[in-house]
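Q: What would this chain look like folded?
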Amino acid sequence: MNETTGNITENTALNDDESDVVEEREMSFLDHLEELRWRIVRALLGIVIGTALCWVFIDHIMENALLQPVIEVNNNLQPGQQPINLQNLKPFGQLFLYMEVALIGGIILSIPNILYQLWAFIAPGLLPKERRYIKWIVFFSSFCFLAGIAFAYFVMLPASLKFFAGFGTQQIENNIAINEYMSFIISVMLAAGVVFELPMVSWFLSRLGILTPAFMRHYRRHAIVGILIIAAVLTPGTDPVSQILLAVPLVVLYELSIGISALASRRKKKNSEE
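A: My prediction, written as structure tokens:
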């Protein structure tokens, strides 16, 4: 009796799994487009909510966050350094600037939701074992991105602004347009957030079998040269301080990615054997 019941349960489970596979295979191209449309709608809805939330606290974000690096530099000027003065040079310049900051802030706040919607769309093409890692992938991807932004804000920006304040002649004042300043700090933070995703990209490519730790070790020197070029491209202007401060953690992340690639490759080999 127990064997019969166990067989019935096992057959039912197998039938359920087979029905799930059939349903996934029967999804048409239009069904995938519909799924993609709703995922994009949910991602955009998250951005709208994040933007509205940032607009509510826009004064606090501007005065106590984005303008704070300049305030700190001006309050701690060393001999030979000049204060950095910010100016609005366009009619309604501050209004459009506030709107831009609120939108970018909304995108940053909704990064976890955007990543989740992306992986949820990809999930039907993954194995059941791989789907269990989606939440962890979203968590660590969001963590890496926000860690990059935090690194840029607390390390890269103060060092870069101190370099600006101390470089050049005393006869030239450091009067910077507010939109140029905001473009600089936002681009630096977003660039740092993107490059801090390197460990997650390495894990994903290693799971697909595209990247191996042996390959990364073999081309380590080439990667360091590429990192210096990437740091020069991602950091605005010709500020060597920002480039070096971005290149150093990139090298560290590359070494960390080798270990992550090795771990992912071992897991992939173990799953293949099972």
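The longest strand covers residues 84-87.
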